[in-house]
Amino acid sequence: MSVRVQSEPFDAGAELNAFSMGAEGAGAVVSFTGIVRDIAGGLDVMEIEHYPGMTEKAISGIVAQAQQRWDLADVLVIHRYGALHANDQIMMVATASRHRVAAFEAAEFLMDYLKSRAPFWKKEHTKDGADWVDATDADEKALDRW
Amino acid sequence: MIDVLYFAWVRERIGEPKETVETSAVTVLDLVNELRAREERYALAFSDLSALRVAVDQELTEFDAPLAGAREVAFFPPMTGG
């Protein structure tokens, strides 16, 4: 398992290749990459704040839950913080398992939990000002299926 | 003595990211009520607890959680990771 919380950009393609090569015995690798969207138009900066210390613990806890539920050969989570811009890669998740169902399901589980249980907060800066992004009911409801 | 941390708009409303508080609060809610009584900016930040989340020693918990032995309490809005 590898969990990285960093401000620097990462190369999702290179990360995925290295992850796949290292996942011994895996017959399936699934990955998800999150990209900063300019939803309203005119996004200057997407500021991502986090809780150093708790962030790493919370993500590792979520990964441990996934490993209990599914037979996973390996898991990778990278999440950035700091000042990002539209189209920047903000985070990625990769899961490796013997069969694809576990890899797909675990990746979705990780994404659902990272969204509302990992201590990150997004603030959108546009020319009109800055607003914190609200969590949605859908984010919270997404946890019910697990 | 307990470290109290604030994140996102809670941090902005309180005006600082972290402070050390002398308190005899038994639960998180007791601490919130002590802070509310201090100054208007705290009362504003803590006006609607349903809009807030709390972590004690970096574990998510509820407002009725005990503070015995806790070193760090953090208040923040619902998280928006991913």
Automatic annotation (TrEMBL), chain A:
Coiled coil, from the record: none
Stored InterPro entries: MoaE_sf, Mopterin_biosynth_MoaE
Catalyzed reactions per annotation: 2 [molybdopterin-synthase sulfur-carrier protein]-C-terminal-Gly-aminoethanethioate + cyclic pyranopterin phosphate + H2O = molybdopterin + 2 [molybdopterin-synthase sulfur-carrier protein]-C-terminal Gly-Gly + 2 H(+)
SUPFAM superfamilies noted in UniProt: Molybdopterin synthase subunit MoaE
GO molecular function (one): molybdopterin synthase activity
Record carries keyword Nucleotide-binding: no
EC number(s) stated in the UniProt entry for this protein: 2.8.1.12
Keywords: Molybdenum cofactor biosynthesis
GO annotation terms (biological process): Mo-molybdopterin cofactor biosynthetic process
Functional pathway: Cofactor biosynthesis; molybdopterin biosynthesis
Catalytic class of the enzyme: transferase
Subunit structure: Heterotetramer of 2 MoaD subunits and 2 MoaE subunits. Also stable as homodimer. The enzyme changes between these two forms during catalysis.
Family according to the record: Belongs to the MoaE family.
Known function: Converts molybdopterin precursor Z into molybdopterin. This requires the incorporation of two sulfur atoms into precursor Z to generate a dithiolene group. The sulfur is provided by MoaD.
Protein name listed in UniProt: Molybdopterin synthase catalytic subunit
Organism lineage string: Bacteria, Pseudomonadati, Pseudomonadota, Alphaproteobacteria, Rhodobacterales
UniProtKB/TrEMBL annotation, chain B:
One BP term from GO: Mo-molybdopterin cofactor biosynthetic process
One GO cellular component term noted in the UniProt record for this chain: molybdopterin adenylyltransferase complex
Pfam (any one): ThiS
Positions in coiled-coil regions: none
UniProt keyword annotations, A-Z: Nucleotide-binding
Annotated GO MF terms: nucleotide binding
Family statement: Belongs to the MoaD family.
Protein name: Molybdopterin synthase sulfur carrier subunit
Organism of provenance: Marivivens niveibacter
Classification lineage: Bacteria, Pseudomonadati, Pseudomonadota, Alphaproteobacteria, Rhodobacterales
